[in-house]
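Researcher: Good morning. I'm working through a list of sequences from a screen, and I'd like to move beyond sequence-only analysis. For each chain I'm collecting a predicted structure so we can compare shapes side by side. This is the next one on the list. No need for commentary yet; just the structure.
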Amino acid sequence: MDNTEMYNGGNSQERKELTIKFSRKLARLFTGKDGKEYAAIAIPNADSDDKRAWEEFVLPAERVHDDYFGSKSLWAKIPEDGTTTLSRSVKPETEGGEWTKKERSVDNVTLKSMVEAYKQKNKTAAAR
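Model: Good morning. Structure tokens for this chain:
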């Protein structure tokens, strides 16, 4: 059995993956209740006027890697045909109320475009 078959659990069909790149500032490492290390990756709101908390998703820490060229970015590979759960903290309606968490699932192609939306922004407008 070659490495590709071992990686795919013995399935000889090659699994397509997406590489997502994001700023090191968006990742937060933490230890789960199971004792394993995870990385929570925040997704900035696409609209700068949107003041809600950012959405985030979690990956095992060993799946998140440093960029080889010494930049301030990280990258991870995720299955192209998979889905990922995003969560967002929701502020309470009343003073002293409890914060809640809102979750939704998105396909990984959409997730990649959300995480890498910063590439689409007009850089000259932000520089002024």
